[in-house]
Structure formats: C-alpha cells, structure tokens
C-alpha cells in the first residue's frame, strides 16, 4: 500500500445522495457527465482521464450511471461493475485537494450549462452539498 495514502479526517460521506432521479432522468445525467468530462481537457486533472474520445465518453457514462443509482434511479453501475467501492476505485489516481477543486469546478460548470438539472434552487443546493461531501471522500493524497 502506498505510504502516501491520505484518509480524509471526516470519514466516509454521512448522508445519502438526494433522491432526485425521477426529476432528472438518465439522459440528463449522461449529458451532464459528458459535458463535465470534456471540460477536464485543459485542466490540471486532464492527465488523469483517457485521451481517446470514446474512452473518455465511456468513463463519463460510468459516472452518470453511478449517479443515477445513488439518486434513486436504476442501479446500472452496480449491475455492470459490481459494488461501487468508489474510494477504492479512485485510489489508483492521485487526488489531492487541488485535484478535487478542479473536478468540482468542472462539475459546477457542467451543472450550470445543464440548467441545474432542472432542479429548484433549494434542490440544487442539496445536490451540490452532497457532491462537495462525496468528492472530499475521494481525496487520497495530502496536498
Ligand atoms: C462526487 C464525486 C465523484 C464521483 C461521484 C465520482 C464517480 C466516479 C465513477 C463512477 C468512476 C468510474 C469508476 C470505475 O468504474 O472505474 C470514476 C472514475 C474516475 N474518477 Fe471519479 N468521482 C468523483 C470525484 C472524483 C474526483 C474529485 C476526481 C479527481 C480529481 C476523480 C477522478 C476520477 C478518475 C481519474 C476516474 C477514472 C476515469 C477512467 O479512466 O475511467 N473523481 N469516478
């Protein structure tokens, strides 16, 4: 195990993702994840992601399918890939706080471009709050 591995002090996310799937739908989640993943290009975290367009698209689809499941929709990610184990799946990639901020920045830009996924202002705040907390748990290097 990499001795540099960092475990965030707050521990795993304490709250479940808001169950907004019925309001959002799968297509919107695919669309938003693809916008976010395209925004990674040219950022400090671009090198973490596939260069090839088709592979990048597939990676974005995985994220959308994970989001669908945690938001109360079809559990496509689990059906295709097994238990989420998201922190473990992220460990091979060096993710420090700066990388998390770059990721969040792209998430928020994509969220705006997708009109906040059609959610009310209050719902948007709840979702973004969950994303903030969940992304903190993906951080695996001090930095
Ligand atoms: C709310 C926060 C996040 C969620 C829900 C999320 C979700 C996911 C999912 C579902 C995958 C696919 C895992 C697999 O099956 O291999 C993934 C992969 C990945 N994530 Fe995240 N992630 C989050 C935060 C982050 C952050 C902060 C970073 C780094 C800046 C990051 C970097 C990556 C990378 C590099 C991959 C692998 C891409 C590939 O080559 O397929 N993620 N993420």
Structural notes for this entry:
The protein is mainly α and 143 residues long. It has helices spanning 21-24, 26-40, 53-70, 76-81, 86-90, 97-113, 121-137. The chain has one domain (21-137): Globin-like. Helices cover 57% and strands 0% of the residues. The longest helix is centred in the middle third of the chain and has 18 residues, at 53-70. The two termini are 18 Å apart. The model has no long low-confidence stretch (mean pLDDT 96). The chain binds protoporphyrin IX containing FE. Residues 45, 48-50, 59, 62-63, 66, 81, 86, 89-90, 93, 95, 99-100, 103, 131, 134-135, 138 line the site of protoporphyrin IX containing FE (HEM).
């Amino acid at each position: 195990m990499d001795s540099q591995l960092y475990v965030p002090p707050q521990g795993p996310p304490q709250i479940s993702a808001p169950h907004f799937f019925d309001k959002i739908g799968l297509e919107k989640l695919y669309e938003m994840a693809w916008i976010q993943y395209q925004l990674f290009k040219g950022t400090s975290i671009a090198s973490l992601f596939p260069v090839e367009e088709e592979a990048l698209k597939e990676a974005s689809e995985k994220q959308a399918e994970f989001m669908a499941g945690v938001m109360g929709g079809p559990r496509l990610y689990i059906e295709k890939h097994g238990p989420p184990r998201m922190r473990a799946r992220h460990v091979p990639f060096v993710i420090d706080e700066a990388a998390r901020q770059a990721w969040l920045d792209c998430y928020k830009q994509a969220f705006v471009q997708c009109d906040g996924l059609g959610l009310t202002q209050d719902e948007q705040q709840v979702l973004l709050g969950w994303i903030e907390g969940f992304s903190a748990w993906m951080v695996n290097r001090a930095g």
